[in-house]
Amino acid sequence: MGQPHTSTRRPRRAVPTALAAALVVVSSGCGMVGSIASADRLQLEPISVSSPRLRDGAVLPSDYSCKGSSGNPPLRWSRVPDGTKSVAIVADNNARAGGEVNWVVFDIDPRTNEVAEKSVPVGAVEGSTTSGKVGYAPPCRRGQSYRFTVYALNGKIHLGKGAPLSRTLKEIAEKTIAWGRLTAGHIQ
C-alpha cells in the first residue's frame, strides 16, 4: 500500500494521550487506574514508527480490521534511545469516550525494531485487550482513528500473557522514556 511513512511526535513532559485515554478504559469502565505521575516527570524522546502496509493518516486496510484475516499489521520503528530495556506496542482507537485497546504487546527485546504481520516478536508477551481477548483484537468501529504506538521502556513489565489491561497500561506508563505513533484515519 505504498511507501513506508514515518510519523514522529515529540510531547513535552506529558504521557501520550493514547496511553492516558487507555488507562481510563478498564474492564470495569470506572475511572483512572493508578498513578502516572512518574511517567509525567520524564522528558520523552520521539521514536520513528512506520509500516510497509500503512501510511500515517491514511485508511486502515480492511485486512487489519474485523473484516480481514491478516491479524496485526507489520510495524517498524527506529531511534529507540540508549537505556531502553524493553519495548511495548499499544494499538487503540482515538475515541474521546468509549475508547478501546485492540492490542498490547510488551517485553519486546530493545534490539528488535519491527514486528511482522500477524506475529509477535520472540520473547514478547501479549496482554489482554479491552474486550478481554489476548492478542490482536481487530478493530471494527468505522469512522474512528486507530493508533499504533510504540513505547521505549526503562525496564521490563514482568507480567504474564493475558495480564489485565489496567495493570499493563499502568506499568507501561510508569516506564515510558520515548514513544512514537502511526495513525490510520479509519477502516477501509
UniProtKB/TrEMBL annotation:
Pfam families on file: PBP (PF01161)
Record Gene3D superfamilies: PEBP-like
Signal peptide: none
Stored CDD domains: PEBP_bact_arch (cd00865)
Coiled-coil ranges (or none): none
PANTHER family the record matches: PEBP (PHOSPHATIDYLETHANOLAMINE-BINDING PROTEIN) FAMILY PROTEIN, UNCHARACTERIZED PROTEIN YBCL-RELATED
Family as reported in the entry's similarity comment: Belongs to the UPF0098 family.
Name under which the protein is recorded: YbhB/YbcL family Raf kinase inhibitor-like protein
